[in-house]
Specification:
By secondary structure, the chain is mainly α. It contains one helix and no strands. The longest helix is centred in the middle third of the chain and has 82 residues.
Length: 99
């Protein structure tokens, strides 16, 4: 990784302008590489956020579906319990009549 020092100039740079141009070129390339890496990091974070948002939406739908299923089975249980209690009363009535 190239360290960018904006105030660092080669010694006697006015005598050797190409040295200074090479330093500027190196700094520009390092800065471009840094910004490219940061762009890639931001794109990855954006994809992660989108994926997490989709997963959250899917989980919310699943919770809603399971809650509906739970309510369905609670109603079935209540109906079955009512039928069982009715049958128990009928059986008790029949036993009392036989006595």
């Amino acid at each position: 990784m190239t360290i960018i020092r904006p105030n660092a100039k080669p010694s006697l740079w006015w005598l050797f302008p190409w040295s200074y141009a090479r330093t500027l070129h190196t700094a520009a390339n390092a800065l471009r590489a840094l910004t490219d890496r940061q762009d890639k990091a931001l794109e990855m974070q954006a994809h992660i956020i989108v994926d997490q948002s989709e997963e959250i939406a899917n989980l919310r739908q699943e919770v809603t579906r399971l809650a509906g299923s739970r309510d369905h089975w609670i109603k079935k249980h209540d109906q079955a319990y009512a039928v069982a209690m009715h049958n128990e009363r009928v059986i008790l009535d029949m036993e009392n009549r036989m006595k």
